[in-house]
Structures are given as C-alpha cells and as structure tokens.
Design goal:
Layout lengths: L23 E3 L4 E3 L15 H5 L15 H16 L1
Antiparallel strand pairs: 1-2
C-alpha cells in the first residue's frame, strides 16, 4: 500500500524532506503523497520515514492503493533506475 496524508495535517513541513522518493509535495491545502512514487520507504529504510517524523500521526496506509512488499520493491527499483538515467 502507498501512504496518504489526512486532513489532520498541520503543514509542519517535516515529512517532505524525509521522503527518499520525492513522493510528498504541498497540495492546495495540505501535503499530499503521490502513490505512484510512494514505496513506504521499502528499499531505503525499514519504516516509512514520514510516519516517523509526523508530529500528529496523520499518515496512514492508503486504503485504495494496495501493494505487496514485492510490488513496493519493484516500484523502488523502477524509481531508482529512472533517477539514474
């Protein structure tokens, strides 16, 4: 699954720089996570870094974006390859 940011977000700016895939950006009102780039930090860290630094715990799993660990690893590999090119 990818992660998502809920309306509880206080725009504290701590999650965006922690994302190794650059999946987090400022949306119209709160930060948002691009599910096409989110690997839940698989390939980079043992746990999602955005969840670790969020002071209001507003970053749950996205219920509509289900992915296995293998799918997340494959996405990580695609994103890593694309960055290298």
């Amino acid at each position: 699954m990818a992660l998502m940011i809920t309306d509880d977000c206080i725009n504290c700016d701590v999650c965006e720089p922690e994302c190794p895939n650059e999946a987090i950006s400022l949306g119209p009102e709160i930060y948002v996570i691009d599910p096409n780039k989110c690997t839940e930090c698989v390939g980079h860290f043992d746990e999602p870094q955005c969840q670790q630094v969020c002071p209001v715990a507003c970053i749950p799993l996205h219920p509509d974006w289900r992915e296995s660990r293998e799918q997340l690893m494959a996405k990580y590999e695609r994103l890593t390859l694309a960055k290298a090119e």
